[in-house]
Amino acid sequence: MKREIERKFLVKDDGWKHSAGGVVCRQGYLSRTQDCVVRVRIADDKAYLSVKGAVTAVTRTEFEYEIPFSDAEVLLSDFCENPLIQKIRHVVFYKGFIWEVDEFSGENQGLVIAELELESEDQVFEKPDWVGAEVTGDPKYYNANLVKNPYNQWTGKG
User: Fold this and answer.
1) I need a labelling partner for 99 at 20 to 30 A (CA). Which of 20, 21, 81, 122 fits?
2) Residue 64 maps to a domain
3) From CA 96, how far away is CA 78, in angstroms rounded?
4) For range 152-158, the mean pLDDT
């Protein structure tokens, strides 16, 4: 078990794109409640099952296990609600921190979010110029909620 301390931000321009490539991800949800989310993710040629607890401030409990790729394929196709979350995850290094930039596709095309995992809730960091407004506490930006309310259905986007 680990404690995930994560902050999320909108990305306002392509200044981060100097990084090469990314990992293609497909993910779906077996369960989505306020207290617990159970997710299946395929990231390139690896597959994972994750269980995440409720968010308190910016922290939550997370369990993640690698599972057989073929199991993940069946779980995504037969057990997860559609639309699946589709994205390319890019890793960008900036001033000692690792930023994960998710470029969504499919039903969430056009949404780009940067995530930063921290060691403590009050850890100080500098935002890159391409990072915009913080959306950490806004549930509409949670991947699990993008299944029910995809970005392409939002009015006023953002």
Assistant:
1) 81
2) yes
3) 41
4) 83
116/97 Cα distance (integer angstroms): 8
Domain count along the chain: 1
Q: Catalytic site residues?
A: 29
Residue 115 to residue 90: CA distance in whole angstroms: 10
Burial of 62 (0-12, 13-18, 19+ CB in 10 A): middle
Question: Which token pair is 79?
Answer: 């057990």
Question: Can you tell me which residue has the tokens 């060691």?
Answer: 119
Residue 77 maps to a domain: yes
37, 97, 31: which is closest to 63 by C-alpha? 37
What is the domain extent for residue 130? 2-153
Q: What is the CATH number of the domain that holds 71?
A: 2.40.320.10
Q: What is the pLDDT of residue 30?
A: 97
Q: What share of the chain is helix, strand, coil (3-state, %, to 5)?
A: 15, 45, 35
d(CA 18, CA 94): 12
Average confidence (pLDDT) over 55-81: 95
Report how far apart, in Å, the C-alpha atoms of 77 and of each of 38, 89, 134, 135 are.
15, 21, 33, 30
Whether 158 maps to a domain, the answer reads: no
124 falls within a domain: yes
> Over the chain, what is the mean pLDDT?
94
